[in-house]
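Appendix B. One record, verbatim.
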Amino acid sequence: MKIQCRNLSKFFGAGAQRLTALDNIGLQVQHNEFVTLVGASGCGKSTLLRMLAGLERADQGALLIDGRHVTDPGIARALVFQHYSLYPWLTVLNNIKFCRRLDVHRRHSTSASVEAASGRADALVRLMGLAACIDAYPNQLSGGMQQRVAIARALMGRPEILLMDEPFGALDAQTREVMHDLILHVHRLEQSTIVFVTHDVEEAIYLGHRVVLMAPRPGRIDSIYEVPLPRERTRDMKHAPQFLALKRELLDRIRDTSGIETDLDLLDQLSRNGASAPQGD
């Protein structure tokens, strides 16, 4: 098993102010599996991803990768943040190549490995459609282009585990579809394990082998759905009856677990009370 979460809990604050961000998370992810996380805001999706990256520590339970406890970040894991987090003083190409400058990658480097890394950087630049702006700086790029640079940088080190926090949210619809197919191609080619956070149910189904639905207050795993589609995905599958049925089921369950209907009832009550209040002159 590549990733094991055993009864993970995460708290913020202390005493009466303590907030349970994640409660008793149990999840296993196999090698080369693509798992997507969906759920209403506040259900802890991004917190769980940061724990997998080693940026947050569990307060209870255990998190293991390849059977070893996770306590810190590691070179086998790469995280694509929701916001681009590029280095503003580096060009597009140097942002992508940045991990190769780290001592952990240079320690045993040879001329052949340096040449291979350079070739990989060039290939990623072309794949991401960035060839025309390799010498540009982040503040000269659109938000969507910055995110493509961030994705290329994450892929540069051939991570065994790729963690993605709503990475395509800033992209236009057409580029988003292209990126879906690209990340599926990379996953298939490099046999990486991907955990992908999204608010888009259709995106979660199209990309994932399993969809993990999380619920808020406290953040927890509500249910896990196997995606009834072949691993080789094509865009016309989005119109398949089993795809649409799963999409409806997920949307209904998110609505049931989010408390939105309760909030709407309160708003309706507020509107009625306002309508019955006496009108001034």
